[in-house]
Each structure stands twice: as structure tokens, then as C-alpha cells.
Design a protein that fits this description.
- The protein has one domain.
- The protein has one helix and no strands.
- It is mainly alpha-helical and about 50 residues long.
């Protein structure tokens, strides 16, 4: 059974890692949504739906 100590948790993220992940997510989310929208429009054009 683990005994509580004053040592830091090994798997804890530092504030720099959290900031880096936040930046990555902030950039990747709109890019992914844009790509998804383009795929939907392209697929609708391929199958003959007129998106107006």
C-alpha cells in the first residue's frame, strides 16, 4: 500500500505543459472543425446535393 510522502506526484503536469496543451488544443480545434466542414461540403457536392 502506498505511503503518503511530501514528494511530488510523478505523473503531475507542470504549468508549462498545461499551457502548451492549451495552445495546441486552441489551434487544433478550429482547424479540425474547418476540415470537417470542408469534407461535408465536398461529400455533398460529390453525391449531388446543392448546398445553397
Amino acid at each position: 500500500m502506498p505511503v503518503p510522502t511530501k514528494a511530488k506526484a510523478i505523473n503531475a503536469l507542470t504549468w508549462k505543459q498545461i499551457l502548451a496543451w492549451g495552445v495546441i488544443i486552441a489551434i487544433a480545434t478550429p482547424v479540425a472543425l474547418t476540415v470537417a466542414a470542408m469534407v461535408i461540403v465536398a461529400f455533398s457536392l460529390v453525391i449531388g446535393i446543392n448546398p445553397q
